[in-house]
Design brief:
Elements (H helix, E strand, L loop, with lengths): L2 E11 L2 E6 L2 E7 L15 E6 L5 E6 L5 E2 L4 E2 L3 E6 L8 H13 L3 E6 L8 H9 L3 E4 L8 H8 L3 E5 L6 H8 L10 H7 L8 E4 L5 E4 L5 H7 L35 H7 L5 H20 L1
Parallel strand pairs: 3-5, 8-9, 8-11, 9-10, 11-13
Antiparallel strand pairs: 1-2, 1-4, 2-3, 4-5, 6-7, 12-13
Helix pairs in contact: 1-8
The chain binds guanosine-5'-diphosphate (GDP), magnesium ion (MG) and zinc ion.
């Protein structure tokens, strides 16, 4: 007898989708209509499916998405853990800021995770993000510092780990969750191959309602092209700039070259960090240029 139910896609590979439903994982196929590019199911998708007498699934429909990322392909995320480090390979602040902007734009909570704290203390960088009101964690896969906090924040949610290659995402996930076994690569190996060790996007089912994915990281290039944010909306997804939107001399101040700008004053007063503001300016230009080329 076939039955109809709902579930969540954990991963798609070789034309099959692995759907978590009622505590078990069902190997499923998707209908032809669903395999068309823009509708194709991704990890994290909530779906309706039909399960036959042999326990094989057939995906009927993708339920409306709360959010969606194209590369890596994943949907319905609650939290993005953005990994950063001041140890090699040093993280580029612009990439961090860009990911945080896109996360907020898509209603995902960003959590900044400063890795490798055993070899390089990231307190200064962490301070910048804490000041913006973001959740931040200092951690180490070696000393296990910060692991309990990561465990706590991943409870009952869909969490994705991202950040540049070699930053230590897989290592920290292995340290926090004993039942995940991810491949950890040496940095030189990755650079010489120009690739990441983590390839398919897979949500791991863990205890206490945790669904966790390791990703090869978002490419800075893709991010702006795939999430077309209006440049004038940008100030509203920089949480430390947002409160000033109506505090400047000019209505509609973009906080760039206008005189008597409250944002620029806040930078001088040390309330807003320079590096974040620089990212704002750079991203503003990038978004403006995108519009012109379309
Ligand atoms: N000292 C130290 N090294 C780490 C830590 N986490 C990762 N590494 C090293 O950094 C390299 C890249 O780690 P990996 O987890 O593969 O990074 P990923 O590409 O972000 O998944 C490996 O050589 C790890 O051994 C850490 O907390 N402390
Ligand atoms: Mg990895
Ligand atoms: Zn202004």
């Amino acid at each position: 007898m076939t039955r109809r139910t709902e579930g969540r896609i954990l991963k798609g590979i070789g034309g099959f989708y692995y759907v978590l439903t009622e505590g078990e994982v069902i190997e499923s196929k998707a209908g032809g209509r669903l395999r068309k590019k823009e509708f194709s199911p991704v990890a994290g998708d909530r779906v309706t499916l039909e399960i036959n007498e042999n326990n094989e699934g057939y995906i009927l429909e993708i339920l409306p998405r709360k959010n969606y990322f194209i590369r890596p392909p994943i949907a319905n995320i609650d939290k993005i853990f953005i990994a950063a480090t001041q140890a090699p390979p040093v993280t580029d602040a612009y990439l961090l800021d860009k990911i945080s902007v896109i996360a907020l734009y898509q209603n995902v909570e960003p959590v900044f995770v400063f890795t490798k704290n055993d070899i390089h203390n990231s307190e200064e960088m962490r301070g910048i993000y804490e000041k913006c009101g973001f959740k931040t964690i200092s951690c180490s896969a070696v000393t296990k510092e910060g692991c309990d906090e990561i465990r706590e924040l991943t409870k009952n949610s869909v969490s994705v780990f991202t950040g540049n290659s070699g930053v230590g995402k897989s290592s920290i996930l292995n340290a926090v969750f004993s039942d995940i076994e991810l491949e950890v690569g040496s940095i030189s190996e990755k650079i010489s191959r120009g690739k990441n060790t983590t390839r398919t996007t897979e949500l791991f089912v863990l205890d206490e309602g945790r669904l966790v994915a390791d990703t090869p990281g978002f490419s800075s290039f893709d991010l702006t092209r795939m999430h077309k944010i209006d440049k004038d909306y940008l100030m509203h997804i920089f949480p430390e700039i947002e409160p000033y939107w109506d505090k400047c001399r000019f209505n509609g101040c973009t906080h760039r070259k206008e005189p008597d700008c409250a944002v620029k004053q806040a930078i001088e007063d040390g309330i807003i960090s320079k590096s974040r503001y620089e990212s704002y300016l750079k991203l503003y230009e990038e978004l403006a240029a995108l519009k012109e080329w379309e």
